Amino acid sequence: MTWWRRGVIYEIYPRSFQDSGGDGVGDLRGIVARLPYLRWLGVDAIWLTPVYPSPQRDFGYDTTDHTAIDPRFGSLADFDALVAQAHGLGLRVILDYVPNHTSDQHPWFRDAAKRDWYLWHPGDPPNNWISVFGGPAWERDPDSGQSYYHAYLREQPDLNWRNPAVREAMLGVLEFWIARGVDGFRVDAMRQLLKDPLWRDNPPNPGYVPGMPEYDSLLPVHTADLDEVQEVVAAMRAVIGDDRLMVAEVYAPIERLVRYYGEGGHGAHLPLNMHLISTPWDAEAIAALVERYEAALPEGAWPNWVLGNHDRPRIASRVGPAQARVAALLLLTLRGTPTLYYGDELGIADVPIAPHQAVDPGMARDAVRTPMRWDATPHAGFTTAEPWLPVGEGQGVAAQREDPRSMLALYRRLLALRRGSDDLAEGGYRTLHADDGVLAYARGERTAVALNLTGEPRPLPVTGGIVLSTHSGGDGAVLRADEGVVLTI
Ligand code: NOJ
Q1: Which residue in the list 188, 366, 482, 483 is annotated as catalytic?
Q2: Catalytic site residue 249?
Q3: What is the pTM of this model?
Q4: Would you tell me how many other CB atoms lie within 10 Å of the CB of residue 132?
């Protein structure tokens, strides 16, 4: 079952997709109500960020029960209905799986008999490890005087994956959801699952300059991407199998990233390739990235591309509204499975958040998690109550559906073109041109893509018939400012 090779994944941030309960927070029934939209749009799978019970310190990534649904989002029955409805529409469901840590409110963490399920150290912190979110990665428990390790928030203690009981319990979580019919998992924080058993200090990062996040002041050689993690990747894959999809969150240089495909295909099907998020918006830089990635892929590995997610600035803010259309074309015409972040198909930009509205202070993530815009009713049709984050300005689905020049119309045309094109869905990649702000590449035998990454006209470096453009009209001789085209060659 390799539906995901030709498929497109759509990331939903459930708090922000559709509220059905009138509390200003999105929920599962809301998602169900919008499934026909996703079908109409033309995506193949939805990835839901965590919907498990959680104190919401890290919005579900701090879980108190990996095998239940937070009442904010609904019930297990609602979840079953969502899977059934999605499948009925031909949509797959991918769940976020959070194996690296739990909430500090999780019963396991509160159970004295399960002390060795976490990483405790008697007394003061044993080393210099820093949390990804900044500050020390050790928290001292005033009652016991011991310290525990947390890669993220202090409310997110890391599980001890060297303890067989933890492995068994957490692999059992996968089985629980597989039995409920899910089609795959996105594994959170895959790189961090094992830490150095000797708890040695991380060395200083020679590339660190003041102003960079504190986490970057050290090289996380003893806290991330240990060789042994590959063995856990393989253990998860063994449970997930071949009939379901294993996606893994891996922020790593390309050569390290591709290791997560595993030996002989026993790793993740898709270690998420987030490099487009951090690469300068420049023709040479993007071509170099694609070529380096293509060259690094192991035999039989299938590529993938991500333009945005719930942790990083939105593409429309990074490159501006005109280039966001070019970016859509890039994402959906590169070789490999694209992951599309909800709202990017509307061109939603980061929404300014006033200090009194912030719910994730100091992290700059609220701005990229704002509610989906559906229509012109109050709160854009997302909720009848006060939304948990402001909705922001800009046209929603209803208006954009009627406008053939809208971002939504462009995404829908691109998704349809990709679906119907063997070249775009499966054909090889070859750079044709990367210079002077223009990137052009061939896909398969007969398809080419040319992208003008500048705000000025440029010669079109490829000859062929234009089958899709970010713009309307035109004579096909030049690339207009901010224009991207797909051609038959
Ligand atoms: C990555 C998730 O995408 C992010 O939102 C979360 O805060 C961390 N992992 C910790 O779970």
Answers
A1: 188
A2: yes
A3: 0.98
A4: 20
